[in-house]
Structures are given as C-alpha cells and as structure tokens.
Amino acid sequence: MEAWSDLYPHQRLRTAGLVRNEDPFLDPEFVERAKRLPLHRRYDPSYPHPYWRMKSQVIKLMPPGALAHLPTAKQIFSRAIVSRVDPAELSAKYLLESGILSARALSGDLDPMVATRIVEVEQWLATAMELGYELID
C-alpha cells in the first residue's frame, strides 16, 4: 500500500518530514478501552439518525454547532472518491504538454478513480513545474 500511495497519492503532503499518527483507532490502548465500554454507553437512542445513535460516543465529543454538518449516514470511501472529480471537465495541461498522457486517453468515458489519479498526478506535476523543475527524456 505504501508503494501504491507513493506512486498514486490521494493527498499531497505540503511539508517534508514524518506524518504523526493521530488516529486513536490505531492505538491498542484506546481500542481495548473502547471494547470494554458497555453497550448502553455505545448506543444512544435519543439521536435523530440511526448512524448518530451508533456513534453516540463520538457525537458527544462534538461541539453543538457541528451537529448540523455531520453526515447522517456512513460515508462510503468509493462514493467520496467518485465525488471528487468530474471526468467530463478533466484537464491535464502539464501531462498533455509533456506527452505523459495523450489527448486520446482523456476522451471518452473515464472511470472516476482513473480521473482522480490523473488530477492528483497533474497537481503534483504542476507544483513541480511551478517550482522550476523541468521534464527530461
């Protein structure tokens, strides 16, 4: 996965250096404590949406103003990716000018995942070119 992410990044890191691990769900101590939480504390029937009821412990951490912006259903990764790019409006100036990508490759129906990758590589290449890097054969 790390090799795939290096070749096809979903996020561009703005600074060099290590990325801190801030996800509590990767922390073994947190996971153990969460598993021991009684069921009646994990589920709160008072919330208006079933998804919120199942995520009550997380919802309780949110400031009241945030509730209006929270999803009311589980967000599916593939749907989120598809919504990031409109393949019909895809432009890849630097990829096309450099010959890395052909105009034919952009014509027709593009899979949204492929379109997302094209946008990410285009952004990476555009940043490199703006910083003064040059393409060589």
Segments where pLDDT lies below 50 for 5+ residues? Answer: none
* Major sheet size, sense and barrel closure: none
Percentage of residues in strands: under 5%
Task: Evaluate the radius of gyration.
Answer: 21 Å
Element string (H = helix, E = strand): HHHHHHHHH
Total number of strands: 0
* Helical proportion, percent range: 40-55%
Structural class given helices, strands, pairing?
A: mainly alpha
Mean pLDDT, to the nearest integer, reads 79
Textual characterization of the structure:
This protein has 137 residues and is mainly α. 46% of the residues lie in helices and 0% in strands. It is built from nine helices and no strands. It has helices at 2-7, 28-36, 39-42, 50-54, 56-59, 77-82, 93-98, 103-106, 112-130. The longest helix is centred in the last third of the chain and has 19 residues, at 112-130. The two termini are 28 Å apart. The relative contact order is 0.10.
Please outline what is shown here.
The protein is an all-alpha fold and 137 residues long. It is 46% helix and 0% strand. The two termini are 28 Å apart.
Which key features would you list for this structure?
137 residues; mainly alpha; 46% helix
Present the secondary structure layout.
Layout: H1 2-7, H2 28-36, H3 39-42, H4 50-54, H5 56-59, H6 77-82, H7 93-98, H8 103-106, H9 112-130
